[in-house]
Structures are given as C-alpha cells and as structure tokens.
Design a protein that fits this description.
By secondary structure, this protein is α+β, with helices and mostly antiparallel strands. It is built from 15 helices and eleven strands. The protein has a six-stranded mixed beta sheet with strand order 1-2-6-3-5-4, with helices on both faces. Helix 1 crosses helix 4. The longest helix is centred in the first third of the chain and has 20 residues.
C-alpha cells in the first residue's frame, strides 16, 4: 500500500506527496498535461521541442543542470503523445533547490532566438538520427497515419515533419508555453524523505504565486471506428531484413479493455515460453524477432504486432503465420496456469516500478493525470479481475481484419 496526500493550490497546481523515510533522497516529479496530442496539426513536435527548451534557462537560472548537480542531484525528462514529465532526484535537505528550479522555469522560461535556434537544431538532428537514418526509425511515421485518420495520435511525438520544427518561430513557442506550462495544467508529485506537510508548505512557497493559464483546450476529435482493412508497403534503405507491423484499435488506458489487451500481449509474447516465440521463432524460424504490445494511451490506443523476418522468408508467409497465431489464440483454451503466470509477472513488474521513491513519484503523477490516483494501489486487482472469458471476447472483437492496419516494411533489394 502506497500512502500519499493530495492537495490543490489556489492556482490549480496539484500537489501529491509520498513520505519514504527509508531513503535520504527526494524525487520531485513535475508532470505537464501536454503531449503531441495537444499540438496544431500544422505545427507538430512542439511538446518534444519544449522538453529541450525547458533546460535552456529561465528568469533567474542560466544553467538548470549546473544547479541540480551542485546540489547533488540529477534530472531528466521525457515526452509522449499524452504528457510531458520532468523529474529531479536530489538529497532531501536540498529539495528546495529542485522546487526553485522548477518554479522558475514554469514562471519565466528564458525565450530567445539563440536558445530556440540551438534547441531547434538539436531536435532536427535527433529527428534525422533516430527517425530518418536509423533502421526502421520511421515506422511510426508510416504506421500512425495509417491507423489514425482524425485523432492527433496520427503523428509521433517527434512530429510529422522536420519542417514543422525548422519553421517554428519564437512567437509560436511562446504561445505554446503560455497555454500549457502553467500550474493549473501541472501535477507536482514528491516522494522520499520529506513530510507531507513540509512538502505542501514548500510547494505553496515556490509555486503558489504563479498565475494559472486558464486555457480551455479544444475537444479532441475522436477516432471513428475502423471499418475496413488498411495496408501500406514501404521500402527502407538501411534495414537488414523485411519487417511486418499489424496494428489493431483497442480501448483507452482506464478501460477494462486495456487490461485484457495487456494480458493478451503478454501471453503471446512475454518471454521465451510465450506462444509467438515458441511457434514463430524457435520452432518454425519464420521470424528472428517477434513482439506483441499495447501502446497504453489515454485515449483509445493500439495493439501492435511487430516482427523482423528471418532471411529468405516471404513476407506474405510471415503475415499468414501471425494470422494463424491470432486464430489459434481465439480458438484454443487458455489454462489458468498460463493466465496466472502472466498475472504474476505483471504484479512483479508493477511492484518493481514502485520499489523506490522515483518510481512512486512518477506513478502517482501519472495516475492522477489519468483521473484515478487510487490506481497506484488498485491496478494489480484490475489485472486479477480479468477472466479467461473476457480475454477471449476481447480478442474476438479486436482481431478482425477490418480493425487492422498492416505495414510491410521491405528492405531495398537494389
């Protein structure tokens, strides 16, 4: 049982605290409720760009990382389609340093043409290195717009195009910042060797006078039900083998559908005794790699099969093999032992993710953003309550041809 307190300041900032006296450190986690889903379709990649800009200095701080390191801490951040997360791990006596740094850049990020130009080039190089030049790096640049037609999940976190970042103006990024990087769009989660009363006092001290943005975000377009199979074939110059990706629409992160799909993906591909590994890699040698996973998005997400083919295997044959495994999964019984093994692994994963103060602060912020902070203690029961019958029904409904988007990623034969 993870114990926590939650308060909301007058300016809308949510403040969560978990006291852990077993560590001399504190993790300060600041989640902003902004991700790629909140971007203008003509100006994508901004949430990820801000992950870099937020370390470029603020009103009273020229070098964010310098002060973190001087206080004996370290920091990092990540962005996804749903939110942006910043975190600092620091010795408990120096917690105010972390709160000062986070509040200063929330209240007054140092905007300049020079800073924007530096970070713009960093992001463009990352785009080229990770998405355009890396083998299979552009898969999601193809798969997302194939699976999504109206929802902003149709572009990846890095953005649709390099041009959107290359053409970003100082006015563009200022407007984006003032909409989303404000106390009423943020969750401050603190875990470690700190009393909840002290955490709230310090949060009030450093964040209490920052005005809210009061930005009313537009309602996102909901992805309509997919009613026909979609297919796309692309060629990659830097890939060592043909690959196949099959994406099926599934439920959102808070739905029972998510938990059923997560269990299905683990039965199919978690470990060397899983069905896909045994049947498609070990026995038949059709694939050199094969996986099944869920995206776990706030809004309805995707259940994805991804596989790298063994040398000489026809991609049509490989797709038929995946389809056969899907059909067998639907038809064949699932033993209680097989299901229990997967649930045990899941419970171990959840427990491990919350074994230290950093994991707890991140998870508390995440579940609060989802709208159900109590899930930090209840999620294991959500998995345990999924029956074999529910799994079978979910698989039958999801794994239909008209709900599938298939990408064939072929190596260039020239």
């Amino acid at each position: 049982m993870i114990r926590y307190t939650k308060d909301i300041l007058d300016n809308g900032l949510s403040v969560i605290c978990n006291t852990d006296t077993g560590t001399p450190f504190v993790s300060v986690n600041l989640l902003y409720k902004v991700g790629a889903r909140d971007e203008d379709p003509a100006r994508t990649g901004f949430a990820h760009l801000f992950e870099h800009l937020m370390f470029g200095g603020s009103t009273h701080v020229d070098d964010y990382d310098f002060h973190v390191q001087q206080a004996g801490g370290d920091s990092n951040a990540f962005t996804n389609n749903d939110y942006t997360n910043y975190y600092v791990t620091i010795p408990a006596p120096n917690v105010e340093t972390a709160l000062w740094l986070e509040s200063d850049r929330m209240q007054g990020l140092a905007f300049s043409e020079k800073s924007l130009d530096v970070q713009r080039h960093v992001v463009i190089e990352e785009y080229k290195q990770r998405y355009l030049n890396a083998p299979y790096g552009d898969v999601w640049l193809h798969l997302r717009p194939l699976a999504y037609k109206v929802h902003p999940y149709r572009w990846p976190t890095i953005g649709k195009s390099i041009d959107h970042i290359a053409n970003a103006t100082l006015e563009d990024v200022k407007n984006f910042f003032h909409r989303f990087y404000a106390p009423d769009n943020a969750i401050l989660s603190i875990s470690g060797n700190i009393d909840s009363g002290e955490a709230l006092r310090l949060a009030q001290k450093w964040f209490g006078d920052i005005p809210p943005a009061r930005y009313e975000r537009p309602r996102l377009p909901q992805e309509p039900r997919q009613t026909e199979e979609r297919r796309l074939t692309v060629e990659g110059n830097n890939v060592p083998a043909d690959a196949i990706y099959k994406a099926f629409h599934m439920g959102d992160r808070l739905s029972d559908d998510f938990y059923a799909c997560d269990i299905i993906s683990d039965i199919l591909s978690n470990g060397q005794s899983s069905r896909l590994y045994v049947n498609l890699i070990k026995n038949s040698k059709i694939f050199s790699e094969i996986d099944a996973y869920v995206t776990g998005d706030m809004d309805p997400g995707l259940f994805v099969f991804s596989g790298k083919l063994s040398e000489g295997v026809d991609i049509g044959t490989a797709e038929q093999a995946i389809q056969h495994e899907i059909e067998q999964f639907i038809q064949d019984p699932i033993s209680e032992r097989e299901l229990q093994k997967v649930i045990n692994k899941t419970e171990a994963r959840i427990a491990y993710s919350e074994i230290n103060y950093q994991g707890k602060s991140a998870n508390l912020a995440f579940f609060d953003y989802l709208g159900d902070i109590a899930l930090i203690n209840d999620e294991c029961s959500r998995y345990r309550n999924i029956s074999v019958e529910t799994i079978k029904n979910t698989a039958r409904a999801m794994f239909s041809p008209e709900n599938c988007s298939t990408l064939w990623y072929l190596k260039n034969k020239k």
